[in-house]
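[job 4471] stage=fold_predict status=RUNNING
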Amino acid sequence: MLARERHRTILALLGSRGGASNHELTRILGVSESTVRRDLTDLDRRGALRRVSGGALPLDTTRADLPPPPPRTYGIARAAAAVAEPGSTVAVSGGAHTAALAKALARVADLTVVTTSTAVADTLFAAVPVGGPHREHIVVGGISTGDGQVGELALAAIRSLHVDTLFLAVHGVHGILGVHGRPGGGEFTAASQPAAETGRALVAAARQVVVLADHTTWGRAGTAAVARLDRADIVVSDSALPADARAVLTAHTGQLILADPRAPRQTRRPRTHPSSAHPHGPTPWRTR
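[job 4471] inference complete, writing structure tokens
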């Protein structure tokens, strides 16, 4: 395949999927990874795409025909972003609310942001000016899906990371209260097995896990489990969350924040659970 044909294929793929990894392009184009990197460099210099670590993004992934997110999304995003500490390293998954969260995180100083989502990366690129308040943005490569990058390449990269806080969007939440001596609990779930594997790897890399789950996730079935409820240090939801869900999440997670478009409301249960202690020592580090 000639270079011109490869370039057209790359741009068409980015336009349809919102991003692609070097590994994915190597497989589709049938060329070496060095050839793919050279093609991406050429296209980046021409202003046709944006190179990121492990792959490339289109210059503009905004879809004007998509409806705006509901107001609860902005409340959840603002409440979650308030958890991020200036100077820390955070990871942001793909999924609902995370693009709005990325925009809110743009105001937090001196962040390093790792993400598996091309939508999050694109939002950060637009919201944070060059030389702005963030230290670094790292996009994990892999197979592009609506829930972010998945596959072995993404898993290998995530497993080399240590982050202070993970912001994890989930597809479903289910659980029960413990009654009459019977244990309670539950799980956060993902829409697919690959997305669940990526989520589990992100959870393992994080000291603190902040789950973004609006009221529509409660009771929704998921294909595979990402984590038990008690692995969440904070769950951020909205004020429409039903009473039974509030009771379960208050009992089995570290903190439940109920956000609305105006201001977050919090319920806290004092506790310490072993899973919140990160096994890798006090200093976060990362490897590209």
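[job 4471] summary: The two ends are 30 Å apart (CA to CA).
[job 4471] exit 0
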